[in-house]
Amino acid sequence: MTAVLAALLLSACAGAQATRTSANTAIIDASAAPACGAMGASRVAAKSAAVETLRAGYERYIITGASSRNNVRTAVVGMQANTFGTISGNTFAGTTTYTPTTVTYGSHDRMLTVIMFNKGDPGYEQALDAKETLGPEWQDLVKSGIRSCL
Questions:
Q1: Are 31 and 125 in contact (CB under 8 A)?
Q2: CA gap 138, 128 in Å, rounded
Q3: Global pTM?
């Protein structure tokens, strides 16, 4: 049950946007929910680079720069108090436990700069294959984009 709930929470926790900066270059801005962590944001950005390479009509890509930012915050939004005790004669002995209610919000963000290549372009042989990066479901991912950090 816990594994199913975790999978559902992470299934729509991420996204990316591409900004074309020239015919064969792009900047990928990816964001992932706090539960995904920094590694989840990195996976979203890397897969999104492959998706955008194929969408732009290229086969391979090289990541030439990257930056990341942790915008995750936790805030205490309430408190619950539970008091338990015993009465013996005229004496009360008790213990109060305070439990804070916290909310975690924000995102893990990752930005990549990408150069894209087709066969015959200088650097093609050293570049990553976009279809190989995405795996057998690459066509579906190109249509829908990356929406999960899993």
A1: no
A2: 14
A3: 0.78
The DSSP line for 56-92 is TT-SEEEEEEEEEEE--EEEEEEEEEEEEEEEETTEE
Of 61, 65, 66, 67, the C-alpha closest to 115 is 61
Question: Who's near 88: CB < 8 A, 6+ residues apart?
Answer: none
- Residue 99 and residue 44: Cα distance in Å, rounded? 35
Residue (of 36, 11, 2, 6) closest to 104 by Cα position: 36
Helices (H), the chain: 2-10, 37-55, 130-134, 138-144
pLDDT of residue 10: 46
pLDDT bracket for residue 40 (50, 70, 90): very high
Q: Are 44 and 16 in contact (CB under 8 A)?
A: yes
**Residue 21 clears pLDDT 70, i.e. is over it:** yes
Integer Cα distance of 116 and 26 in angstroms: 8
pLDDT digits (tens, 9 = 90+) for 70-107: 999 999 989 999 999 999 988 989 999 999 999 999 99
At residue 139, what is the residue type?
Q
Mapped onto helix, strand or coil, the DSSP state of residue 127 is: coil
